Amino acid sequence: MITIGYSTRTSNPTLREYFKKTCGIKDVEVIEVINNGEKSLAQAYNQIIDSSSNNILVLCHDDIKLETGWGKKLLKDFEENPDYSIIGKAGSCYFPESGVYWEKMNQTMVGQVYHHPDGQKKWLSKYSPKLPFLIPVVTIDGLFISFDKTKIKHKFDETIGKFHFYDHGFCIPNYLDGVKIGVTSSFEITHQSVGQPNEEFWISKNQFLQKWGSKLPLDLKPEKVFIPEIKEKLSNKFGKVAVIIPNKSNNELLLDCINSFYTNCNPELFKIFIADTGSTDEEKEWIKKNILTLGNIEFIEYDYYNFAKINNDVVKNYVTKEYEYILFCNNDIKLLNNVLFEMIKTFKTYPNCGTVGARLMYPDNTVQHDGLFLYLKKDNKQIVSTHKNQFNYYNYSSGLNSVIGNTAALMMVTKNAFIKAGMFNEKYRHCFEDVELNIKLKSIGLKNFTNSNCVAYHIESKTRDVKLNNYEMIEDYNNIFVPTFKSIFEKIKNEVFVL
To answer: What CATH number labels 2-219?
Structure first.
């Protein structure tokens, strides 16, 4: 069923028995190539391929440990994914022109590998969370390479490298010829050493680039978004949600946004408030005819745009006592699952919750937002606010995560907490009002969470009627946000990273 092969300096009967014992299946073939440097890994692995009795091969380092039953899980991966021919434990969706495949490590590497060198504590290199599917990649790390030898189109390239780039010299030509490569999370692996680039690595890299550099870069963006299933169990203890959506002249986006609520969420839980900030009379009539008829929707007209002021006004003058929660939502949001129920459930589970956000995705299926991230540059005391995991392919949070804050592009808060924190600061002209609200909620003892089970697409900045004025943003940052941050820093300093 499976042939396991490796290159090693001395014969190791204990290792052979270990692989057979932990594999969890019968009729395991183990091929050991004694190699003291006279052969490259590509030569050793091709020798194993030629002498193997089984179609499924595992070629790996001789200093790894695998969980019991890993072989059964690997065979299941191949059986359930017949379009995949090569499977590894770590890899990359991107291969740059430089040839250094970890160049965009945070964004494009995937998989999980434990490391446990002698005399050191065990740690985990987590390039992506455990996901219930094979992650498509362009190459995998040579630590663990498995494949169906009847489906590959190229063996290992013996002209590239000796102990480096044998993995990429195998994967890249197969990938370019249509062989599908994936990374699995179905079992765990531990590496008992840590690989380090040496002189031979850089020589091998140059050999690889001479042969394949004209085909680079390779960029395999996600074909779809991972959307966790949310099972709803309604309770009479669940309060209702006021969904506030500012809009101006983007009616098609608005329609998609509102339809996504009625498609994915229980209409009994929410009412939508459209805050129109200057659409034409014709556009307003279109909204009334095509959107207001969809359900429980109220249309409110404003003759100006100020995100903070408009949302505050809706809360103060239109959101009645029956609504326990407020969901701030841009008109360019498209829910992909039952975000409302999952967010409310978070508040019910954690009564000290301040805000709850979602995993927001760009239209190209990369991460736009997975929570706010604040850090302080120690040298010049500059405060920087950025999006956690932005532009990552698969390396995003899983489940519920405590964060310093969330973006108001899609953010839930209780009405009481919003009012207690002073609502949005209306002095801001373009942004930062949501960041300030989040840190104020933290300062009064509440916790903010990003619930990455909640997933939505976000096409940025469609509610604003003009492009952002960078000068005004910098001015607001220096004159409003920084003084507010400094005034409450002692209360939130444990949440701020210092560089």
So the answer is: 3.90.550.10
